[in-house]
Amino acid sequence: MQAKHPSTRSYKTISPLLGENVYIDSSSVIVGDIQIGEDSSIWPLVAARGDVNIIRIGKRTNVQDGTVLHVTRKTPNNPEGHPLIIGDDVTIGHKAMLHGCQLGNRILVGMGTIIMDGAKVEDDVIIGAGTLVPPNKVLQSGWLYFGNPMKKARELNDAEIQFLAKSAENYVLLKDEYLAES
Predict the structure, then answer these.
(1) Which SUPFAM superfamilies does the entry link to (predicted)?
(2) CA atoms of 177 and 13, how far apart (whole Å)
(3) What is the pTM of this model?
């Protein structure tokens, strides 16, 4: 894991940990108990607060402009709270809000999507732009979801499933270009 980055800040002496070759735009704010896996990217104006619980972001995941990442604190009624866990090869579109949810691997989160506390998104899922995923919902692997509130629309075809990893790969290449210029 890499050391401190200008966009990262500690909270109660806990600082974010960055994997190798992570790109974080200087306009983003990454605070507290956050780990970001290798080859991932955090784009302009992302706010991520791992203050009252943890945030874990996997490898080759990209968090696009204006996204908010947050968590829910631990309480007597909810001893684990709701951490934010994001898997590998995930593409999170512009202005998404992910709050105390869990995302598997190879997921596309559309622009402006809101995913709420306790929701779980399995592997290989596309969530359409502007979708609201209510608390504690489970989105099954291999499906397209969209709407407010979200609805299970249809199964993904092979090309769409292959695109999920390709989307993440494209952002790895783009962040490499940005890192080469810094």
Answers:
(1) Trimeric LpxA-like enzymes
(2) 32
(3) 0.96
Residue 3 lies in a domain: no
> Taking the mean position of all CA atoms in its chain, how far away is CA 15?
18
Q: What band does 1 get if pLDDT is binned at 50, 70 and 90?
A: low
**CB pairs under 8 A, 24+ apart, for 24-32?**
30/5
User: What's 43's domain CATH number?
Assistant: 2.160.10.10
**Structural domain count, the chain:** 1
Cis peptide before 149 (omega within 30 of 0): yes
Domain assignment of residue 28, given as a range: 8-181
Average pLDDT over residues 68-97: 97
Tell me the Cα Rg of the chain.
Answer: 15
Express each pLDDT in 112-163 by its tens digit.
999 999 999 999 999 999 999 999 999 999 999 999 999 999 999 999 999 9
Rounded-to-integer distance, Cα 160 and Cα 138, Å: 20
**Residue 29 contacts by C-beta under 8 Å, 6 or more apart in sequence?**
7, 9, 46, 47, 48, 49
How far apart CA 140 and CA 152 sit, in angstroms, is 9
The string of DSSP codes covering 30-56 is EEEEEEE-TT-EE-TT-EEEEEEEEEE
Say whether pLDDT at 76 is over 90: yes
In this structure, are residues 108 and 167 in contact, taking their beta carbons and an 8 Å threshold?
yes
